[in-house]
TrEMBL record:
The gene is dxr. Catalyzes the NADPH-dependent rearrangement and reduction of 1-deoxy-D-xylulose-5-phosphate (DXP) to 2-C-methyl-D-erythritol 4-phosphate (MEP). Belongs to the DXR family. SUPFAM superfamilies: 1-deoxy-D-xylulose-5-phosphate reductoisomerase, C-terminal domain, Glyceraldehyde-3-phosphate dehydrogenase-like, C-terminal domain, NAD(P)-binding Rossmann-fold domains. It is an enzyme of class 1 (oxidoreductase). 1-deoxy-D-xylulose 5-phosphate binds at K121, S147, E148, S172, H195, S208, N213, K214, E217. This is 1-deoxy-D-xylulose 5-phosphate reductoisomerase. Residues 4-128 form the 1-deoxy-D-xylulose 5-phosphate reductoisomerase N-terminal domain. It comes from the Bacteria. One of its GO terms (molecular function) is 1-deoxy-D-xylulose-5-phosphate reductoisomerase activity. It comes from Pilibacter termitis. InterPro entries: DXP_reductoisomerase, DXP_reductoisomerase_C, DXP_reductoisomerase_N, DXPR_C, DXPR_C_sf, NAD(P)-bd_dom_sf.
Length: 392
């Protein structure tokens, strides 16, 4: 029996994970989970899985749930996330919160030698060096849950790493893949949230459309597989059937294919090294799909992808800034505070004005992450106040 801690149980990955656990009660027990705001969903998860520990987003929901479930221990906020992830009985932590809030509990779980199943790419983009160093030092496995990285991880099983030529990450192109830059000027939140292939949380769906998601994934792949940026390629693949590929020096490519169903990489990570049976499998028939398409990425059309490679190659805290600026800008777009193309503008501006610190420490990175968020927040507030002034 593997005891699981699920950080972000009420989200899209959280829901897929609960379904995987439901299908394999003999293999997995949900020992701990976290939620942020969705008390109703958290209550249903408690009733179904009877965990020992639950981390709540605020004191009020903690009070409410503590009264309803007196046998369960409840925590709250960032402290609660760490308590859940480091609980004695937990074997595997699936980090599925949205954003770099996943960083500290993931690092603390590694320090306690928990296996990590990582959906939360922002953690690796913010401070990949420190996460990977800690994992090496503690001899802890980081099993990718992000579909592209799971595909690469699966394709690399049993292969000689010295024969690896490059990683080929596929991108669906997101909600606006056929829009021109001009057409992007007036797109709405509703349109942006209409992903062609995947049903996901709001922030990642916006990221997919701006190509930030692919940018974050390139940096995530660099850290997970220790591959230089020069050997990572992104191709547009509209069908999201080939989840990614690995190319070898002998000219061979190995790809992993499957339905657009996040339960598959979750099941693979939680079951690893066993391949477990998928219950209620989604239909997948290549003869019905018929054709698969692969196209070159247009860097002019998707400047955030180019910027990811630039930030990744510069290294240090450039990826931290790239991610932090995007978290603020993408959420500001979702909240109706900025226009769609301004997401790119704020991310590019934050990266452009960033001055690297010498002998960067983890404390510096945490500070830079915080400073970037404040910087972008203030820039957005200032622009809003100017717009309001003009309207008067
Ligand atoms: N969805 C997908 O298919 C994929 C997602 N990922 C990655 O997985 C992660 C989760 O994505 P997804 O499930 O789509 O996101 P969702 O927005 O659907 O879910 C996010 C989860 O995190 C919780 N949460 C939100 N903000 C905070 C916070 N400040 N502190 C603590 N918890 C918080 C939410 O709680 P509540 O709902 O209670 O407010 C929810 O449980 C992201 O990093 C994403 O990039 C990677 C590959 C695919
Ligand atoms: C399911 C998953 O892993 C997402 O990250 C997905 O890859 C988004 O697809 P695109 O970013 O390619 O649109
Ligand atoms: Mn992905």
């Amino acid at each position: 029996m593997k005891n699981i801690c699920l950080l972000g149980a009420t989200g899209s990955i959280g829901e897929s994970c609960c379904d995987v656990l439901r299908g394999h009660k003999e293999k997995f027990h949900l020992s701990a989970f976290s939620f942020h705001k969705n008390v109703e969903k958290a209550r249903a998860i408690i009733q179904e899985f009877s965990p020992q520990y639950v981390s709540c987003g605020d004191e009020e929901s903690k009070e409410r749930l503590s009264k309803e479930f007196p046998k369960i221990t409840f925590g709250v906020g960032s402290h609660g996330l760490v308590e859940a992830a480091t609980l004695e009985e937990v074997d595997v932590v699936l980090t599925a919160v949205s954003g770099a809030v996943g960083f500290t509990p993931t690092l603390q779980a590694i320090e306690k030698k928990k296996t990590i199943a990582l959906a939360n790419k922002e953690t690796l983009v913010m401070a990949g060096k420190w996460i990977m160093e800690a994992a090496r030092k503690q001899n802890v496995k980081i099993l990718p849950v992000d579909s592209e990285h799971s595909a690469i991880f699966q394709a690399l099983q049993g292969q000689d790493r010295t024969s690896l030529r490059k990683l080929v990450i596929t991108a669906s192109g997101g909600s606006f893949r056929d829009y021109t830059r001009e057409e992007l000027e007036h797109v709405t939140v509703e349109q942006a949230l209409n992903h062609p292939n995947w049903s996901m949380g709001k922030k990642i769906t916006i990221d997919s459309s701006t190509m930030m998601n692919k940018g974050l994934e390139v940096i995530e792949a660099h850290w997970l597989f220790d591959v230089p940026y020069e050997n990572i390629e992104v191709v547009l693949h509209r069908e999201s059937i080939v989840h990614s590929m690995v190319a070898f020096h002998d000219g061979s490519y190995l790809a992993q294919l499957g339905a657009s169903d996040m339960r598959e990489p979750i099941l693979f990570a939680l079951g690893f090294p066993e391949r477990l049976e998928m219950k209620n499998e989604k239909p997948f028939d290549l003869t019905e799909i018929g054709k698969l398409h692969f196209e070159k990425m247009d860097e002019e059309r998707f400047p955030m992808l180019r910027l990811a490679f630039e930030c990744g190659k510069k290294g240090g805290s450039f990826p931290t800034v790239y991610n932090a600026a995007n978290e603020i800008a993408a959420n500001a777009f979702l909240d109706g505070k900025i226009r769609y193309l301004e997401i790119e503008k704020y991310v590019a501006f934050a990266c452009l004005q960033h001055k690297e610190k010498e002998d960067l420490t983890l404390e510096d990175v945490i500070e830079i992450d915080k400073r970037t968020r404040n910087f972008v927040r203030k820039e957005i507030e200032y622009a809003q106040s100017q717009e309001n002034e003009m309207r008067r």
